[in-house]
Structures are given as structure tokens and as C-alpha cells.
Amino acid sequence: MAPKKPTTTASSGSKKAGQSQTRSNRAGLQFPVGRIHRQLREGRYAARIGAGAPVYLAAVLEYLAAEILELAGNASRDNKRVRIIPRHIQLAIRNDEELNKLLQDVTIASGGVIPSIHSSLLPSKSKKHEDGASQDY
Q1: Of 105, 86, 27, 108, nearest to 61 (Cα)?
Q2: Listed residue (87, 47, 56) closest to 79, CA to CA
Q3: For the segment 92-121, what is each residue's pLDDT rounded down to a tens digit?
């Protein structure tokens, strides 16, 4: 009988056994879980910080960033631009009801304002003049 070949699993085939893996990689996140954990500890928000708290916070922050960047990318595409500028971020946030409520007290530098004209400032639809003159003298 021929000797058996050792079977390799997917996890051991890509990395050596015992090699470290970041908590961000374990959670499948891009945001740094370790850095957020350190900042929670150093910020003295609580006497103790659990192991799951920074993972959850990193996931929430990553989701919010992805949501804002997606909407800002759509706004930049609408304006026929390739790069996202602060104006696009402002338009993305203010046109989304939930993000606007979350960030209502936030001022974005160089963001500008949302284009809108109050209804009382619009010209009123009144009766047409019968004599055709624009003003009465």
C-alpha cells in the first residue's frame, strides 16, 4: 500500500499553523478592531471593555462609512465627476432621510447648502391682466 498523503484544509493551506490573524480579519471587517479597542480603553468610557464591543463598533462604523460613500459616489456620478468632494458628501447625507436625522447637527466644511426655494418666495399664479399692460399707471 502506498503511504497516505496528508490532506490539507483550506485554512492550513493558505497560512502556516500558529500564524497570527488580526481580529479585523476574523470578523471580516476593514475597520481596525484592535485600534478601536485601544481607543475605547484609553478613552475611559467604562472601567472594563468586553471583547465583542470593539468588533460591533467597528462593524457599525464600517457600515455607516460604506453607506455614505456609496451615496456620495452616486452624487458625484450625477454631477459627472470622478472624485468625491465634500459637496457630494453633503448632498448624499442631506438627501437621505435617516442619515440627515443622524447627522443633523454636523457641519461639513465646503459642503454648501441643499438647493431649495421656499414656496412663499416663488411668483404667485395670479389672474392675467385683461388690458395686456404689465403695470397700472
Answers
A1: 27
A2: 87
A3: 999 999 999 999 999 999 999 999 999 999
Alpha-carbon distance of 120 to 123, in angstroms, equals 8
Identify the CA nearest to 104 among candidates 121, 90, 86.
Answer: 90
**Half-sphere exposure at residue 52, Cβ-oriented, CA atoms within 13 angstroms:** 0
Range list of β-strands (E), the chain: none
User: Rounded to the nearest 5°, which phi and psi values hold at 35?
Assistant: -65, -40
**Residue-level pLDDT at 126:** 75
Residue reference for cell 455614505? 68
Report DSSP state, residue 119: G
- State how far the Cα of 83 lies from the Cα of 90, in Å rounded to an integer: 14
Q: Tens digit of pLDDT for each residue in 33-57?
A: 999 999 999 999 999 999 999 999 9
| Contact of 68 with 93, CB cutoff 8 Å | yes
With CA atoms as reference, report the closest residue to 115 among 90, 78, 81, 136. 90
